[in-house]
Each structure stands twice: as C-alpha cells, then as structure tokens.
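Archive entry. Fields below.
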Amino acid sequence: KNEVEQSPQNLTAQEGEFITINCSYSVGISALHWLQQHPGGGIVSLFMLSSGKKKHGRLIATINIQEKHSSLHITASHPRDSAVYICAVNGNEKLTFGTGTRLTIIP
Amino acid sequence: DADVTQTPRNRITKTGKRIMLECSQTKGHDRMYWYRQDPGLGLRLIYYSFDVKDINKGEISDGYSVSRQAQAKFSLSLESAIPNQTALYFCATSEGTGGYNEQFFGPGTRLTVL
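PREDICTED_STRUCTURE:
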C-alpha cells in the first residue's frame, strides 16, 4: 500500500463546478503539500499545511491530522484549472508523493 | 528568468551512453533534489543535497550519481544509460527542511533511452 493515496485518479467536470480532490496518508507527517503540474510538465507549489485550512483565490486546502486526510477544493472551476494535482507528505525531511489526480475542466 | 533551470530540456540517447543532466538555481537555497517521474507513479527521489559538502541517496539512486559543484549547481549523471531510465527528471530546491519549506521545481528534462 502506498504511503500517499489520492482519489480520484482522474476527474472530468464542467466549467463552474465545485471540485474536491482527496489525499490520505499512512505515516506521521510534519507537513503536507499540494502541487500543480501543468500540461507542459512544470510543477508549482500551491499549499503547504500542517493543520487546519488555507485559502488562495479559488483554491482551498484542508487537513485533518487525526484522520490523516487532506482535501483540495476548487470553487467555480475553469478550463485553466485543468492539470495534475499532486499531494506530497513529509515525515523525515523528504517528500513522499502521491500519483496525482488528473483534472479536466470542460468549457 | 526562471529561478530553477535544467539543461537539456529534452534528450534522446542510446543504451550504454553516459548522460549528464544539469540544474542551476538563483534562489540562494542550500537544499537541492533530483526526482524522476514515470507514468502512473509519483515523483521519486533519486539524490538530495543539503549543502555543497552533503550528498545523500534517495529511494532510487542505483544507476545514478550526482555532483554538487556549487551552492547553485547540482548535476545528475547516468553512467551507462538503460531504457528503463526513460523518464521525466525534475530538479528542485528548498530553503530549509523539505517538509516545512516550499520546494521550487525546475521545468523538467525529458530523457529517452533507446
């Protein structure tokens, strides 16, 4: 069993829909990261959180340390949100990555 | 200009050839990382360096070596490339501990070994 599991693996939605991507992990962590990988391959960091909730524009990330679970939400989704979203956790100064969720937003 | 650059961006080579992938950063970060990404798998750590004199193996270091020439430069070498090393390779940097600090990724190098 992978240390970091993401669901769903693929998600297709209509523009404007509310999107939720989930991440569960099986190890103790000090922080959890959400990353976005663009269709061209580049990776950017969206959030780093160790408790509670963070918001940036239309993106919201939450984490429940007790349940070892995090969610990434996108409100009012737009085609430009189409990308692979990657969850990564740190427990020993190195990151362990999930396999990613491929999100496609249809106009 | 990009803060983390990788050269080359694309490379096609043959089995048995020696290949070097280079990473440079202008962020002034001490910590640098090399990852590979394969379809259906998460990013996996090959090597990491916490400063110029500190090099550490990651989870998949076999068949690879690295050199930290300066704070700003971290190179990955494939001594004798094999087809299953075909992958997308990323360099990343962070200011401090990789868990607490954001990692900044280069644009990636797509390597194909025939």
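CURATOR_NOTE: The two ends of chain B are 33 Å apart (CA to CA).
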